[in-house]
Amino acid sequence: MSGSTKAMGVLTVATLVVVTAYTVALGSNGWLWFGWVVLGLVTLGVVASRGT
């Protein structure tokens, strides 16, 4: 894995932590979860494309 791929993975996990904390503190926000899912899918796509 390259440095940018690792950074994207770290960003995805950090975003998950932030969205979870927001949900616990202020209630669920569907757009935040949707954004996190999109970010996760993009990250998986980048990992898959770099793996080949």
From TrEMBL:
Segments crossing the lipid bilayer: 7-25, 31-49
Organism: Streptomyces inusitatus
Entry keyword set: Membrane, Transmembrane, Transmembrane helix
Domain of life: Bacteria
UniProt name for this protein: Integral membrane protein
